[in-house]
C-alpha cells in the first residue's frame, strides 16, 4: 500500500469516530479510551514492523490495519452499551461490516482490501487458524501483538490504580471482584503453555493469570522486549497471592519470555 493512503484512512477514521462523541460522561470516557487505544496500537505496530525491516508499503498497510482494527467498537458501544463481546457481539466482525459498508477499501487493489478485512476479523479471535499463510498470517500476527501490548498497558495501569482512582473504568474488571483465591484451571493452562480462557475467570487473580498467559500468543521478539521494558508482567505478578502454584506459573512464564526473546524470527 502506498503510504499516501495513510492520511486518507486516518482522516476517515477520525471523522467516523467523531460521530460517536456523547454528552454522557460514561459513554464519552469509553469513546476516548478507544481513540487513544487506536493511536497507541498504531505506534506499537509501527515499532514492531520497524523491527522486522518491512518495506514502506508493508509498514503503511500495518498502520492502516491498526487504525481500522477496532472500528467496530464505536457501533458496539452505541448499540449495546458495552465492550463485552460475550454479552453483545463480536466487535471484529462488526468492524468488518462497518469497513465494507463505508466503501473505504474501494480505492485499493482487491487483495489488499481482503487482507485488511481478514486481519481485522482475526485480531480478536482465540488463535490464528493454522491454515493462515503469507501476508494474512504476517499482518494478523502484527495486529495481535500491537493490540495485546496496549491492552496489557491499560490493564496494568487499571489494576495499579483501581483502589485509589474514583474515575477508574469498572468495565476493565470484566465484572470480577478482588478476592483471595485463584482458579487451579488457570494455573494448569499456564503450565501447559495455553492461553487462559475468559470463561474460566472467577476473580481478579484469575484475570491477572489470563493476561500473564497472553505471552503464549506473542509473535515477535521485539514485542517480548517491549513487554519486559514496560514491566507489565512484574506488575501483574505483584498483585497475585503468595502461593506455591502461583510461583510455579510465574516462573514458567518468566522462563518462556526469556526463551522467546532470544528466538530468532
Ligand atoms: Fe479489538
Description:
The structure is a single chain. The chain has 265 residues and is mainly α. It has two domains: 5-143, Hypothetical protein af1432 (Orthogonal Bundle); 174-262, no CATH class. It is built from twelve helices and no strands. It has helices at residues 5-18, 25-51, 56-68, 72-80, 91-102, 110-122, 134-161, 184-191, 204-213, 221-229, 232-238, 244-262. It is globular and about 55 Å long.
State the order of secondary-structure elements, H for helix, E for strand: HHHHHHHHHHHH
CATH topology of the largest domain: Hypothetical protein af1432
- Mean pLDDT reading: 93
Portion in strands: under 5%
Distance between the termini: 24 Å
Q: How many individual helices?
A: 12
> Percent helix among the residues?
55-70%
- Low-pLDDT parts are none
Main sheet summary: none
- Give the ligands present: fe (ii) ion
**Broad CATH class of the largest domain:** Mainly Alpha
Which class do the helix and strand fractions yield? Answer: mainly alpha
Number of E-state strands = 0
The CATH level-2 architecture of the largest domain is identified as Orthogonal Bundle
Amino acid at each position: 500500500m502506498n503510504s499516501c493512503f495513510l492520511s486518507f484512512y486516518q482522516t476517515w477514521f477520525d471523522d467516523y469516530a467523531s460521530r460517536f462523541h456523547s454528552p454522557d460522561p460514561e459513554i464519552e470516557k469509553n469513546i476516548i479510551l478507544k481513540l487513544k487505544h487506536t493511536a497507541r496500537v498504531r505506534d506499537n505496530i509501527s515499532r514492531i514492523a520497524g523491527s522486522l525491516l518491512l518495506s514502506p508499503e508493508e509498514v503503511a498497510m500495518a498502520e492502516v490495519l491498526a487504525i481500522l482494527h477496532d472500528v467496530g467498537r464505536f457501533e458496539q458501544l452505541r448499540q449495546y452499551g458495552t465492550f463485552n463481546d460475550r454479552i453483545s457481539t463480536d466487535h471484529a466482525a462488526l468492524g468488518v461490516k462497518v469497513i465494507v459498508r463505508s466503501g473505504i477499501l474501494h480505492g485499493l487493489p482487491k487483495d489488499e482490501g481482503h487482507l485488511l478485512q481478514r486481519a481485522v476479523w482475526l485480531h480478536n479471535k482465540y488463535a490464528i487458524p493454522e491454515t493462515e499463510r503469507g501476508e494474512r498470517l504476517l499482518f494478523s500476527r502484527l495486529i495481535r501483538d500491537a493490540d495485546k501490548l496496549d491492552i496489557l498497558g491499560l490493564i496494568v495501569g487499571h489494576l495499579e490504580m483501581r483502589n485509589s482512582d474514583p474515575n477508574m473504568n469498572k468495565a476493565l474488571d470484566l465484572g470480577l471482584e478482588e478476592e483471595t483465591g485463584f482458579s487451579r484451571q488457570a494455573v494448569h493452562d499456564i503450565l501447559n503453555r495455553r492461553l487462559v480462557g475468559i470463561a474460566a475467570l472467577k476473580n481478579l487473580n484469575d484475570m491477572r493469570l489470563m493476561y500473564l498467559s497472553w505471552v503464549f500468543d506473542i509473535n515477535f521478539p521485539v514485542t517480548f522486549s517491549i513487554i519486559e521494558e514496560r514491566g507489565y508482567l512484574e506488575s501483574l505478578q505483584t498483585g497475585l497471592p503468595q502461593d506455591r502454584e502461583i510461583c510455579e506459573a510465574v516462573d514458567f512464564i518468566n522462563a518462556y519470555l526469556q526463551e522467546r526473546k532470544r528466538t530468532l524470527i
